[in-house]
């Protein structure tokens, strides 16, 4: 994949990692704009290629009363406004084939959730839009098996595809990242490490997913050291009251310090690579 395929992506000549970051879900316009403004300011300062992330709906929920969204079109229009206001590309996840064409009218990158990455009709529908496709590695899949998911995209005449590692199920309520899979998957496509979802603790008795946000810095640094091309991090100015995945999101106030450290580490990795 060529990063230049992502419209409005800045700082692509810096040899830095690229960043997909934003809230788990679009909860409203004000919160999305506030988060985007801060991340754009920080990434411009550090010259990090940046894509704003926000789910226009959440289809995979633990309970029927969990937050699923504010309305598809309303959320997608907010994603478009973020892009137009801050001149950055956007990414959102899709869940059924009909979502692909709809979301493609508003965003630049279509993301396939980990639980759905084996769904051929969904992957092909995303690929056929011509948009960049981000394939989340299934929690139940080996790195080697992601070659076939990538091939579904390229066989649909779309070479713009990347893979995101988001951890593998370890028992019932924990995730682990096997960093041996990073070089394996880089043979197939650029590889992103989903730092925050890799620290999830799913399947809690309460029906609300837990997490270990204190380890976000450790996980991100390990990813950079392992040679990932990009990082995925969900962030919010008030994680405790976020409507989705608050337990494993990064507090927005901590983002600049972490990214500054990661840029310094990336420079070291580049020099010894």
UniProtKB/TrEMBL annotation:
GO terms for molecular function: 3-deoxy-8-phosphooctulonate synthase activity. Signal peptide: none annotated. Belongs to the KdsA family. Its EC number is 2.5.1.55. It is found in: Cytoplasm. Keywords: Cytoplasm, Transferase. Its main location: cytoplasm. InterPro entries: Aldolase_TIM, DAHP1/KDSA, KDO8P_synthase. SUPFAM superfamilies: Aldolase. It comes from Flagellimonas lutaonensis. Transmembrane segments: none annotated. One of its GO terms (cellular component) is cytoplasm. One of its GO terms (biological process) is lipopolysaccharide biosynthetic process. The keyword tRNA processing does not apply. Residues 13-263 form the DAHP synthetase I/KDSA domain. It catalyses: D-arabinose 5-phosphate + phosphoenolpyruvate + H2O = 3-deoxy-alpha-D-manno-2-octulosonate-8-phosphate + phosphate. Pathway: Bacterial outer membrane biogenesis; lipopolysaccharide biosynthesis; Carbohydrate biosynthesis; 3-deoxy-D-manno-octulosonate biosynthesis; 3-deoxy-D-manno-octulosonate from D-ribulose 5-phosphate: step 2/3. This is 3-deoxy-8-phosphooctulonate synthase. Pfam families: DAHP_synth_1. It comes from the Bacteria.
């Amino acid at each position: 994949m060529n990063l230049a395929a992502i419209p409005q992506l800045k700082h692509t000549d810096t040899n830095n990692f690229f960043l997909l970051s934003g809230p788990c879900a679009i909860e409203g316009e004000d919160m999305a704009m506030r988060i985007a403004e801060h991340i754009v300011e920080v990434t411009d300062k550090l010259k990090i290629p940046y894509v704003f992330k926000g789910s226009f709906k959440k289809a995979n929920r633990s309970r029927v009363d969990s937050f699923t969204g504010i309305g598809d079109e309303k959320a997608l229009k907010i994603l478009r406004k973020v892009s137009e206001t801050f001149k950055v590309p956007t990414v959102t996840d899709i869940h059924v084939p009909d979502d692909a064409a709809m979301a493609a009218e508003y965003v630049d990158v279509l993301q396939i959730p980990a639980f759905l990455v084996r769904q051929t009709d969904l992957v092909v529908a995303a690929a056929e839009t011509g948009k960049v496709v981000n394939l989340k590695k299934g929690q139940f899949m080996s790195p080697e098996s992601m070659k076939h998911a990538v091939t579904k995209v390229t066989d649909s005449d779309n070479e713009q595809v990347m893979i995101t590692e988001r951890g593998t199920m370890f028992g019932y309520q924990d995730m682990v990242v096997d960093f041996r899979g990073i070089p394996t998957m880089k043979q197939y496509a650029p590889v992103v490490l989903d730092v925050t979802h890799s620290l999830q603790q799913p399947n809690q008795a309460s029906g609300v997913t837990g997490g270990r946000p204190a380890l976000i810095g450790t996980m991100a640094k390990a990813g950079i050291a392992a040679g990932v091309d990009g990082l995925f991090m969900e962030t919010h100015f008030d994680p405790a009251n976020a409507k989705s995945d608050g337990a494993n999101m990064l507090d927005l106030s901590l983002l600049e310090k972490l990214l500054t450290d990661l840029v310094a580490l990336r420079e070291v990795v580049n020099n010894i690579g």
